[in-house]
Design a protein that fits this description.
mainly alpha, 7 helices, flat
């Protein structure tokens, strides 16, 4: 039984991905961060704040989160290239902007699951109350 020279490395990478998630997702995230770093300072500050907010309330699945972040940085890069003022991008209410943006990425949002769980529990409770 012979092992290939790269077999220990492959085994290590499989173990690492089991623990931390796919390496490709990490590469994609760091590419997003590099793009965000190249934005003008005010756009960079805004995208960092939006990213933090969206990581708390956005998709819980890596692929959905990464798609959302890619779209966000696309929007900010294009806006910066066009010279669009930051307030024209996010509006007067950044929370409303973030919530509207997040609605495009409902898959895997923990808050959506919790809202559904709450609604189901209340529906069940109301149905039990009606039977009594």
């Amino acid at each position: 039984m012979t092992t290939e020279p790269n077999e220990p490395k492959r085994r290590y990478l499989r173990y690492l991905e089991m623990v931390t998630g796919p390496i490709e997702d990490k590469k994609r995230y760091w590419q997003y961060k590099a793009r965000a770093e190249r934005l003008p300072a005010n756009y960079r500050t805004a995208i960092d704040a939006l990213q933090r907010y969206m990581e708390h309330f956005g998709p819980g699945k890596a692929d959905s989160l990464l798609a959302m972040l890619d779209d966000l940085v696309d929007l900010f890069e294009q806006s910066a290239a066009d010279g669009t003022p930051l307030r024209e991008v996010v509006g007067e209410d950044p929370v409303e902007f973030a919530e509207t943006f997040l609605r495009n990425y409902p898959e895997g949002q923990w808050i959506s699951r919790e809202r559904e769980r709450l609604t189901t529990a209340i529906d069940r409770a109301a149905g039990e109350d009606a039977a009594v």
